[in-house]
């Protein structure tokens, strides 16, 4: 089902919308599998639709995955609020994507809120709790933006060119409820009229960099898309002042799981003494996992490497085979950046410093 984005023009952009009506609740997501070619809202009407949206990456990004899962529980409780269905819904949602810990955090919170109350009250309570999780995420990102901005203001700003960022994947408002994590300080710096430029790495194979470019274009923030492999060259030639990424899970020792390719950027940043900042809400911190070695890394379908997607003048959207089915391919979706490559972690509580460059 479609919904025009003009309905949302009056508020800061969000990729998920919960509407309360006299006859019940409605949940909408912006389908990210079609961006940046088409902007289409889909209504999630049941648990199965929420599961599909997460698994197929119609919604993606650690915080948004957690929020969508919480709403998925609310959809499940609206249909059948029994103990058995609660247990089943939580288990099915937990199995959608393994790396982003926000998913498990949100499901634990929904379980804690719902398991102890009578089934007849669970539907209404589940919607309220999911809404609270969403609003908390938006507030956390606003705080990350302000802490990140304060950190950026301590950096030496180049005299003859803009302060230049390198980012990876998409950690903007599309990946959260509002603002984003890694992009929140960039949005805050732009709002303060700091002259800046962002190198956006393409992020093969799912090309989340195209989502970042789409966001930045809408916000009027100067940026340039580069192939992932250009990152080392740009850093080596003095064209990057700071690397800023999000995270899918931060282990107890500070190791960071994030989109595949993050680790190589951190290595190059270390080589050239460029600050490497990670921005993430506390819901991404996982004190139960001792180090990056224990973080489960999602291995996605190797079909994602065999096809490229884009827009086509006739149909508006097209898939093109780039690799024969007989060719072997491997598709790890995340990698681990060791804690000692992270200059600072920015959360809603402030900045914790790691190594100094
Ligand atoms: O596979 P994705 O697109 O869900 O991966 C997203 C990322 O790796 C993001 O960098 C991370 O979730 C931080 S989002 C605020």
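-> sequence recovered:
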């Amino acid at each position: 089902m479609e919904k025009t984005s003009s309905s949302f023009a009056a508020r800061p952009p969000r990729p998920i919308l919960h509407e309360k009506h006299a006859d019940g609740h409605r949940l909408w997501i912006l389908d990210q599998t079609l961006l940046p070619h088409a902007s289409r809202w889909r209504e999630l009407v049941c648990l199965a639709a929420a599961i599909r949206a997460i698994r197929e990456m119609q919604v993606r990004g650690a915080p948004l995955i957690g929020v969508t899962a919480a709403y998925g529980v609310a959809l499940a409780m609206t249909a059948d609020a029994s103990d058995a269905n609660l247990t089943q819904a939580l288990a099915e949602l937990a199995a959608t994507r393994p790396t982003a810990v926000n998913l498990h955090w949100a499901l634990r919170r929904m379980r804690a809120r719902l398991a102890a109350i009578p089934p007849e009250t669970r539907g209404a309570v589940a919607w309220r709790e999911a809404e609270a999780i969403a609003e908390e995420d938006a507030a956390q990102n606003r705080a990350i933006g302000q802490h990140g901005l304060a950190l950026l203001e301590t950096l030496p700003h180049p005299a003859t060119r803009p302060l230049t960022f390198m980012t990876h994947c998409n950690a903007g408002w599309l990946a959260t409820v509002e603002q984003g994590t890694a992009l929140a300080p960039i949005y805050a710096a732009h709002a303060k009229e700091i002259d800046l430029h962002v190198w956006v790495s393409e992020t093969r194979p799912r090309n989340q960099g195209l989502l970042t470019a789409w966001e930045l274009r809408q916000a009027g923030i100067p940026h340039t898309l580069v192939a992932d492999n250009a990152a080392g060259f740009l850093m080596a030639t003095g064209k990057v002042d700071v690397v800023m990424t999000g995270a899918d899970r931060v282990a107890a020792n500070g190791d960071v799981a994030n989109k595949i390719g993050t680790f190589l950027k951190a290595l190059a940043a270390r080589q050239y003494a460029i600050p490497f900042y990670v921005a993430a809400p506390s819901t991404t911190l996982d004190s139960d996992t001792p180090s990056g070695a224990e973080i489960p890394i999602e291995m996605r379908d190797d079909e994602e490497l065999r096809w490229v997607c884009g827009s086509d003048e006739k149909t508006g959207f097209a898939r093109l085979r780039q690799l024969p089915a007989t060719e072997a391919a491997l598709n790890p979706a995340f990698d681990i950046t060791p804690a000692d490559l992270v200059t600072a972690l920015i959360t809603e509580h402030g900045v914790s410093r790691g190594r100094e460059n």
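The chain has a mean pLDDT of 95.
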